[in-house]
Fold each of these.
Amino acid sequence: MDRITPEAGFRTNGSIKLMEAIADRPGVRAQKILYLVTEDWYFCSHRIPIARAARDAGYDVAVATRVRDHGDVIRREGFKLIPLDWRRRSINPWHETKALTDLVRLYRRERPDIVHHIALKPAVYGSLAARLTRVPATVNTVAGLGYVFTSRALKARMLSPALKFAIRTLLNRNSSLLILQNPDDRRVLGELCGTPRERTVLIRGSGVDVQRFVPMPQPDGIPNVTMVSRMLWNKGVGELVEATRRLKRDGASLTVTLVGAPDEENPASISVRQLEQWQHEGLVEWLGHRSDIEEVWRRSAIAVLPTTYGEGVPKALIEAAACARPIVATDVPGCREIVKSGESGFLVPPGDTGELADAIHRLVSDTSLRRRMGESGAGYARAEFSEQKVVEQTMRVYKRLVAAQTETTR
């Protein structure tokens, strides 16, 4: 990933003023931003451009996360890396109490001026720790309301009241701003949790690198349909497999590729054994995790994401659209932000394998339709979802909080 430099236009006027103020005050420490995120890979894939821009604007940047395979990537950026023993799936009271205690100690030790919590669990736990340690300002980014808000499982229903209470009491503070990725989530949190609209900011997704993901011609040969996602049942992997089974039974000429790994921390994770079984049946080719996603889209004719729960704005779909790939997705929050049904792809009802199969078949059987929809999606993605736009919008959030701190201390 290329380094974002000031010359690339990622500094806002407010950021430049901040740097000048720091430079004019010898001995005064720079403002510190601490990012709290569950997984190091997620920070690197979704948030590192924002942290780079903050660093280049004069902030000290620290990243607290569970470290697996991307620790060196984070350190090479010049960020302070703070490993955490973080368990996304855990609801064990002992583990959760320890996690909160560790965060309180961390915030007292690091003394951040701003903490940026990424995802719902870090937002709730981190906001409580920030309140206990008097952190001046917090930013909470929630990319989709996820499992607890959307699942009908008993565990989700048990957790929902406590989570709604936590959001009402912790994320609605005057020194806190909540970044949401689509207007549906903004409406839901307003209705269920009383989140004031003025405490929310709409930033649609984590952006796409338009230098890396560029429009590509449709590949020759049998059309390949590709799904890039974590391998979760509620992402609609099972529905895609059943739609593929139906299409192949009816004689459609296509191949289907799954790109992504299971997520052992998610209760909806699909087993490796199941994925290998589908591959053995000849229904799909499962590639596992891939980092060369632009090459994946180069070989793909159609992108698909039949998720059955609300997304933020799926990064995989933004990247596919930027590569001029038509999309078939479900008509749920997040997906409808990037897919204009009938123009850049098709939106189908969640869980409806018949409609999903029909939409895929329309694109598989019509090369000119794929090209036309792909071109429409590419223009929209590059204009509305560029990485630069997301970075600039987030930097304005930091500037707003810094200005509020200044007003408070006068």
Amino acid sequence: MPKFKPQYRRLLFIDKKLKEKLYPNCTTLAQEWEVSAKTIQRDIEYMKYELDAPIEYDSLKHGYYYTENRFALPSINISESDLFAVFIAEHALSQFRNTPVYSKLRSIFSKIQDSLPVKTTIDPSWIHDRILCFQEPVTDIDVNIWDKIAKGIRNSCRLMIKYAGPGQKNMTQRKVDPYYLINHKGEWYLSTHCHTKDSIRTFALSRIKNAEVLSEKFVLPPGMNRKKMFGDQLGIIWKKDFYDVRIRFTAEVAPYIRERLWHPRQKIMNQSDGSLILEFKTNHLNEVKDWILSWGTGATVLKPPELVTKIRISLKQSLATYNMLKL
């Protein structure tokens, strides 16, 4: 049985009377709207219990009023195509499923659906069966640590964290200024200024074992904005030095490279044989190395020499590993 939804125009009418502080009651509202008093009573109950409206009854003035003057009734004018987009967005929430944000976002989407006019209807069941969103595997994050880090960022407070790197048992204690919280390939990262190393450091949230919010405040350095730190879309590791990268992609791979924006300042030079050369600047090489290796023989690094060396070492190690296999 579909959930009961009052006519939204009637709710707006009741909301207007309450904001005018006229202390309307079910009888007076019913007479003005030409419906029964029971209908108005159901509307008020819907507003109180479904829309969290702060409505109370004044027995002396024999009418209802808002206990919070700043309350705003959700006013949604949404088409079926817009509603479809909302359901798609809800379906894509799985990237947040390892954080406390997930349940809160689902609650918000539920309130949006409950606030819709009765005329706007759509059956979302087919979306879950026919629209698929495959997400990166995610890591587990301690809810308490997430909340501490969020508080540190929100209030610009320093954090004291205990961190263990990949495969490490011993934890190190770091005092950090939490700059940014970033989601990247299924993992949440904390970009900071680490006072222990006196430099920018990035920590995976899943590897932070403890976090405490300190009373010390910090200020983001001038120019240390999100564009400067994360304008390079090929990764999230930040370093001061930049490299000019130049990669040749074969004719077989080139169409896949052309159809995407891999870097905000990339340059593509098409070659006569159907291949192409991609150029961009980056301040890290390890993540670029992994990306290049994913293209196999379809990509060849031309510069910088440091990246060519990294690729050679990785390929040499992989070849040695396969040579040891006994099939």
Amino acid sequence: MDILKRPRIDVVIESSGIVRDNLFNIIELIDMAIKKISELDEDDDINFIAKHHKKYGHLDRIFSSKPGSYGSGVNNAIESSKWENENDLAEVFTQWMGYSYGKNNFGRESKKELLSISRDIETIIHKREIDEIDINDDSCNYSYAGGFYLMAKKSGSKPSLMFEDTFNPSRPQVRTMKEEIERTAIGKLLNEKWIAAQKNFGYRGATEMLKKIEHLYGWGATTKMVNDNIFNNIAEKFVLDKEMREWFKKENPWALSEIASRMIEAYKRDIWHASESMKEQLEEEYMEIEGENE
């Protein structure tokens, strides 16, 4: 404690299946460290691991999907639109990620333990190491961080959701996830230079635009942290702009249809508070796009 100069905090780790399978020795070391710290003779106000061990009666802190499986399942539910409310997504996350790992433990079903320890979660942190790939490049980002956020809320906690930026190791930064969502959406997805660069790739570029918009929608579905103005700008720039619409129709009309459909789903699920005028325009364009695709 003289070295730390702060209490020993308790941390719940959600590991991807890839990290679990390739770096299991690290998972074992972390688990062993957790158990050793829980045994220290220290007051509860300086050793939260020991405190929570007494409270919950277990030391499961490292979780992942069932052995042999990958992902949290949340992105599958969102992409297929097979969900009705946030609790459905929280349940999917729990069912998929409720397996503990550690020394002499490779995937014990621990859904109850995951839910119990999640009641005390105050902060959820998601991080990336490079800026070339952002949080909208892969559905795993919102699936893990957003799914964890929903599960913790369902368990009874009110966690903040943060983003750890270690792009420059000498100057690490922490922002709210809302700030990071806005930074990446404005800096890349809505950036005219990025859009122009993607248009050079034709069909593939249109698919890349669709992918980012779908993942941004995933952040909206799991966190409700996507600003309405971002969705407004996406609708204006990618669906309602005549020149852009014609480019999509030429290069990849199916991507345009999917973007319009996802935008409509966003306001129908109350993720985006679109104006009535915007809703009418989008639905009209979607009907026209679908008719042409058929």
